[in-house]
Design a protein that fits this description.
The chain is of the alpha+beta class and 441 residues long. The protein has nine helices and ten strands. Strands 2-7-9-10 form a four-stranded antiparallel sheet, with no helix packed on it. Strands 1-8 form a two-stranded parallel ribbon. The chain has a two-stranded antiparallel ribbon with strand order 3-6. Helix 7 runs antiparallel to helix 8.
């Protein structure tokens, strides 16, 4: 195969690949994919699992606890001690025991100590129960953190999706405008050849066409960056191709501020976390108050002294173990009072969080209404400018208008279309922000 033919076939193949349209990614699919593959969401999910494992580990404290100690070795020096005469008593029939001072020496050989104990908590069960309540609240906090991360990720995906849709619309408008300017250049060059147009007119059209090509290049570069950011949010390879759907014109929507605030206060993670923190602070007060209860456990102990001939080989003991600090100079009382103050602080934080959410909902609702008004205004502006463009183009074709008028009106149409694309994207982004303010994913 000749090199020129190979290059020709490669160019045809490359052109065919370039013409293939990437798969369409809907906004619902993008959000659903991010909930599964986003790395920050996965990290938060692991936090929930870890909190659950901590609760499971704490739950084992309710069961009997086993401890085993093994001590073995050999004495570097023999252990010797004397038993004085009569140390074990003096009896009328036998006299003193021992009858004379006796010396006991342990042999230098391997000896050991084995101690094993099983204990069942009794009075500590209430303290463990309170600790489990606090740990379960920690699980709920981890779930709220996951929920917050999911909401943030969903909002980021929607916001970026609308930006890509806006850029895609701007590219389509820029391509249509470039095609129009290319046709206008051909007509202007023909008029120039017929001496029906000035050379400056032809240069003006060429300059406008070159400017449009540069704008199209920057828009495509912007879209490439936005798509890479979207793929990162979706946990995919950065080069994964896709396209987005053009966002439709939104329909009218009636929103009740009071209902919106009530929904947000019931669903927002900030409020739910503040409530859980207040509940956790109350539980901490109860845990500290429970420190007044003595720790009582039922125990079963086993002791063995192998290779020690003069000591019992096996000792088994059953009973109870109590640990208590009756006097602490007011330490528990001071700590409990400090925790009560923390509990009151958590209650104030909860109230403030509710008001912050209400303020945020009101602000997002106002921004949504403003975005809707701007969207309707830009739609009317586009319709008006396009009608003017149709008229001035017809007049130019009839030699009743100047080329400068056509170029000026073309710029007005391009500006109006760009404003409308931004307004559509701004509305949907404001809608996404409002949904986020309500605590929706």
């Amino acid at each position: 195969m000749k090199p020129s033919r190979a290059l020709f076939l490669f160019a045809i193949g490359s052109f065919g690949l370039a013409q293939e349209k990437p798969p369409v990614l809907t906004i619902d699919d993008a959000v659903a994919l991010s909930m599964k593959a986003n790395r920050q969401v996965q990290s938060s999910s692991l936090g929930v699992h870890a909190a659950g494992q901590q609760t499971a580990a704490l739950r084992t404290s309710l069961l009997p606890q086993f401890q085993t100690y093994l001590l073995g070795g050999e004495e570097l020096r023999p252990i010797s001690f004397n038993i004085p005469r009569g140390a074990l008593g003096v009896y009328p029939a036998t006299g003193p025991i021992p009858g004379e001072e006796s010396k006991v020496t342990t042999p230098q050989e391997f000896t050991g100590l084995i101690f094993a104990q099983a204990s069942q908590p009794l009075s500590q069960l209430w303290k463990i129960h309170l600790s489990l309540i606090s740990s379960r609240i920690g699980e709920d906090l981890a779930r709220e953190s996951l929920r917050q991360q999911r909401e943030d990720t969903a909002w980021s995906v929607r916001d970026l999706y609308y930006q890509i849709a806006q850029t895609q619309t701007q590219i389509e408008d820029a391509e249509a405008n470039q095609k129009y300017l290319a046709e206008l250049q051909v007509e202007t060059d023909r008029n120039l050849a017929q001496q029906a147009a000035l050379k400056g007119d032809s240069l003006s059209v060429r300059a406008r066409l070159s400017q449009q090509r540069y704008q199209l290049l920057t828009l495509r570069d912007t879209m490439d960056t936005q798509k890479e950011s979207m793929n990162r949010l979706l946990g995919r390879d950065l080069e994964t191709p896709f396209s987005v759907e053009a966002q439709p014109m939104p329909g009218p929507e009636e929103l009740d501020p009071a209902v919106a605030r009530k929904e947000a206060i019931g669903q927002r993670s900030e409020v739910r976390e503040a409530r859980l923190q207040a509940k956790k602070a109350e539980t901490a007060v109860r845990q500290e108050h429970a420190q007044y209860i003595p720790d009582v456990s039922a125990t079963l102990s086993y002791v063995s002294l192998p290779n020690v001939s003069f000591a019992p080989q096996n000792i088994v003991h059953a009973g109870f173990l109590m640990q208590w600090q009756p006097f602490d100079w007011g330490q528990k009382r001071h700590q409990e009072n400090a925790l009560r103050d923390s509990s009151k602080q958590a209650g104030l934080t909860e109230q403030d969080a509710e008001q912050q959410v209400a303020v945020d909902v009101n602000a997002k609702l106002r921004a949504l209404v403003e975005a809707r008004v701007w969207l309707d205004t830009t739609a009317l502006s586009v319709e008006a400018e396009r009608e003017k463009m149709r008229v001035v183009t017809n007049r130019y074709g009839q030699k009743a208008a100047l080329l400068s008028d056509v170029l000026q009106q073309e710029a007005a149409v391009s500006s109006a279309a760009s404003d409308h694309a931004r307004a559509v994207a701004a509305f949907w982004r404001a809608k996404a922000s409002f949904d986020r303010a309500l605590g929706r994913e």
